[in-house]
Prior knowledge:
Elements: E1 8-13, H1 20-30, E2 34-36, E3 39-41, H2 48-56, E4 63-64, E5 68-70, H3 76-82, E6 101-108, H4 119-126, E7 130-135, H5 140-153, E8 158-164, H6 169-178, E9 183-187, H7 195-205, E10 209-210, E11 213-214
Helix pairs in contact: 1-2, 1-7, 5-6
Bound molecules: adenosine-5'-triphosphate (ATP) and magnesium ion.
Adenosine-5'-triphosphate binds near residues 48, 187 and 189.
Amino acid sequence: MKSNAGRGLYVAGTDTGVGKTVLAAMLTLALDACYWKPVQSGLEGETDTMAVRRMTGLPAERFKPEAYRLTAPMSPDQSAEREGVRIDCEHMELPGCERPLVVEGAGGVMVPMNRETLQIDLIRRWGLPVVLAARTGLGTLNHTLLTIEALGSRGIPVLGIVMIGEPHRENTATLAGWMRVPVLGTVPPLASLDAGSLMDACRTALPSFNQWGFEQR
Ligand SMILES: Nc1ncnc2c1ncn2[C@@H]1O[C@H](COP(=O)(O)OP(=O)(O)OP(=O)(O)O)[C@@H](O)[C@H]1O
Ligand SMILES: [Mg+2]
């Protein structure tokens, strides 16, 4: 595994729709970083890159173009097959960037990219540490513990997990008790998702991330 530890981080999720894009927008602002969504499946409406650009208000040059833009809102492998495309995981490389790079994954970590490769294999090859976005509510214990086990068994470094949603003290405590990686904080439902609100939420909920990078507390 290559080490890209100082280059940025990979925002992974326990599932689709857990809040990776919102978290990635917060971290892109906090780290004053560039953002990259390697594989976008689903092009109708706003893509994740467009959403992060809108929320952060950062200039266009902070957004690296997707390696694959696939029309159907399906898993990357299925969406690609529909278009007669194979996602070439062996040659997909992190884009160059003078700043830290925040990479947003697709769905959950075991999602297939093609018939031979899962997303987690790509994460391992890139060697970026993972920040795992997880729901606060019912169902999160199983999803989160499975994801952490899968990452850990492949030797992928995990900075910690970020819970997203209505704060849930018991779930947070249970996860903290079962994992060796820290729960970094809970991002509650935010009334506004503009840059100022995201920065405030990041300072309050995720003080480990700031303009100097990630500080283990
Ligand atoms: N903290 C939050 N406060 C308010 N709304 C949120 C928050 N986090 C996520 N959302 C909303 O929940 C929905 C799903 O979040 P998001 O798009 O970030 O998920 P995702 O994990 O990136 O999904 P995908 O797998 O499609 O990339 C979006 O409409 C988003 O605006
Ligand atoms: Mg997203």
